[in-house]
Amino acid sequence: MQRRYITVDVFTDRAFGGNPLAVVLDAGGLSTAQMQAIATEFNYSETTFVLPSQDAANNAQVRIFTVRSEIPFAGHPNVGTAFVLATRAATAPARLKFEEKAGLVPVEILSEQGRVIGAELTAPQQLQRMDEVSAAEAAACLSLSASDVKTDRHAPQVVSVGLPFLVVEIASREALKRARPDAAAFARALARFGRDVVYFYTRDVPDSEQPLDLQARMFHPGASGLSEDPATGSATAAAAALLADLDPISDGELRLRIGQGVDMGRPSLLLTRARKQGGAVASVHVGGGCVQMMEGTLRVEGAD
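The chain above was modelled as a monomer; its predicted structure follows.
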């Protein structure tokens, strides 16, 4: 059976920016092993597989695979998958709801002059603040010194709104640009947490990169060792939730414009907002634009 696929660049308004995503439609009948093989073949940071929903109240079941394994939730796969489904609908929906391993993920469709341009997801879980890491350990993962890590607002900490990341604040834009992943330090510092992903950001954004509130990067395991992700919606949402939790306001909304991928030549813009109610983070959202790139079909032998 032929399977249709569409690729999109996510968190950008132009081709060859943002984070590439492959969306496999008609995924029913594919085994987990086949989905993993397809994701490895595409070799993108994530590939999604769209299946019929288990509950008729929802729009689809979405499974998300990296080149190495299935994950319960991710940001740009939700935004990109919602964009693909909305653009293929006879009438674009206002919102979609996906069933994922981390829970239900609502996604609002973003339109401009009647044209679908992107989407905004709501994270499926409440903020979880987990283990802290020393500044020295976090810096070593990034080939930086401890003085390059800021701890006045928060220590390097593993946080999650559906998928955990070590979130680190960096003192300067120059240090952010200088960072390189150190595999041995990753293994020492992060293996005990069962995570091997570091999201790091700085508030030191030069005028030439405005109007951004933060500039960020993210290192993670790829098909051939540690690599960089150009736009990471789930990590952005987790970081925004952490910053909102630290904000002294009791009720309101923290909005941030976050750049990522600039230092690897795939500039991305992630728009995030975290809503607080009664002193706690009630919900966190991240969205942005999408551009369709390719479409075609694939055939997997032995699949229904």
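Residues 75-88 form the longest helix (14 residues).
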